[in-house]
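Example S7 (structure tokens).
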């Protein structure tokens, strides 16, 4: 009885096949990324953000720097939210302990949506918002994305209306330009600090250790409580969301980071529509050469 010869792959051939498979996988991921980006743009086309420079802010070239800061603060600060969160944790003995937190946020539309950091509302069971007065608004969490440290909460808008913080374009920023930060550091509501853009394209990491690309570095003072608040340009447009500081002691030392507003432009519509960001995934499992040999490949 004649036996048919069995062709066995050499180690070099296996390596070449593995390399080719990796290239195909990378290509497939890129294709999926492009398709996902296309559909995100299609879905986002129904979501509009305020972009026009707000009235009440003069041409910065026609007024002093001091006057510009006054006008930006006076115009935009009513749209900066003071966010308070409450969480409840049961300890080993069954006792329930209450945890409190706070942060900042920006009103992004007239429907009551407020943009903030994910870590501000993470694990919160109760969220409230106020705008510097005695009125407190209960808020619900609409969606969050830990990978970009962004989240959206919502309140029922008051009959008197809301101040919407317009969005700028973070792709057009340059190092050295003036920026303003409005937030609630240490519970001091709607505090203004100013500075410049110290660097661009800074790599930072979200709390889940995922990289956040192209962060904005600023020397405008940012402290605990500023998280989620707007980083503004001299026209009063939000160019970033204040997120992190680099500090050995936990206070501001002039090195703060903001998530670019263009990242929020991509993320926010999905958070409002789905409550999360839908990203393409490709299941690829790599096997060692020894395992392939053991299987007779």
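Recovered sequence:
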């Amino acid at each position: 009885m004649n036996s048919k010869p069995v062709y066995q792959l050499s180690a070099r051939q296996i390596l070449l096949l593995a390399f080719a498979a990796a290239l195909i996988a990378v290509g497939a991921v890129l294709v999926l990324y492009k398709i996902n980006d296309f559909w995100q743009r299609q879905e986002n086309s129904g979501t509009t953000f305020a972009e026009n420079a707000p009235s009440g802010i003069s041409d910065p070239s026609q007024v002093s720097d001091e006057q510009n800061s006054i006008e930006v603060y006076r115009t935009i600060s009513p749209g900066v939210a003071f966010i308070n969160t409450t969480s409840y944790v049961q300890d080993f003995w069954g006792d329930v302990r209450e945890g409190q937190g706070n942060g900042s946020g920006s009103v992004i539309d007239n429907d009551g949506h407020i943009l903030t950091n994910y870590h501000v509302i993470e694990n919160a069971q109760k969220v409230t918002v106020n705008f510097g007065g005695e009125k407190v608004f209960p808020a619900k969490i609409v969606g969050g994305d830990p990978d970009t440290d962004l989240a959206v909460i919502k309140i029922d808008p008051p009959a008197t209306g809301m101040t919407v913080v317009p969005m700028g374009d973070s792709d057009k920023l340059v190092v050295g330009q003036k920026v303003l930060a409005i937030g609630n550091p240490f519970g001091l509501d709607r505090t203004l600090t100013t500075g410049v853009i110290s660097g661009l394209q800074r790599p930072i990491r979200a709390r889940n250790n995922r990289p956040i690309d192209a962060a904005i570095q600023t020397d405008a003072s940012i402290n605990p409580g500023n998280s989620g608040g707007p980083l503004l340009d001299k026209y009063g447009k939000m160019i970033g969301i204040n997120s992190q500081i680099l500090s050995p002691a936990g206070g501001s030392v002039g090195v703060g980071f903001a998530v670019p507003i263009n990242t929020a432009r991509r993320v926010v519509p999905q958070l409002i529509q789905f409550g999360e960001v839908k990203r393409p995934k490709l299941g690829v499992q790599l096997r060692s050469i020894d395992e392939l040999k053991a299987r007779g490949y």
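Notes on this example. The chain has one domain: 60-274.
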